User: Fold this.
Amino acid sequence: MQLEIMGAKVDVYESGCGEKSALLLHGWGCSAQLMESVQRALEGAMHVVSLDFPGHGKNGTALPPPEPWGVEEYMEMTAQLIRRLDMAPCDIVAHSFGGRVAILLAATHPELVRRMVITGGAGIKKPATGKMSAKQRLYRGLRGAVNLAEHTHLFGDLPQKGREALVQKFGSPDYRALSPEMRKTFNRVIALDLTDRLEQVQAPTLLYWGAQDTETPLWMAQVMRDRIPDAGLVVEEGAGHFAYLERNAKFLRVVRSFFEVT
Assistant:
């Protein structure tokens, strides 16, 4: 089904029944489809809901939010969804970007969350070193030239083309693939550091991580484990950012046990 929440169209996939509810939150650039195995594993004993975040979806053409959103807006949308579907307090399984949303949700609305499993969760910024690489210095210099050209209004659409050229040369694959509007959302999302919100998470939290995760390295999970009051960490050697799919059978057993599903 499709719901309208905060002006955004949200595709929702609902299955199962039971006294407990589970909400599945996918990663950036992904869709509810990558949570299908988790949904199937839980729907026999729980009411399970997954969704495509606005701007995401399996067909790659999902409508973006009505304006550039940050983690805060995605979180409030998720909170409204939980209330609308009468799921509170629910269990949450979240991957990557979904982990950002889940952490902020649990810290802001503890009454909505019973337990959480976060795998490859994002939201912790790497401490600044004060040093810039040669690539970073080059990018900043070129970006400054493009900004100056835009302000002079003397070069037509060349500054816009130059900005896109910088994105294609220096941007990550995920960023390059985004529409201009979703790039604004992406920039807002990654700007928020959730480190100081971790201690406000009251829900028991299980962190499931790949030791070889290069997107959200293991040290991020260790920070979460140390700062979330009731948290444990499971590390999968040889697995990467999608450890929950690479070790799917084990992951599903862990989730069912943690959620007390028999």
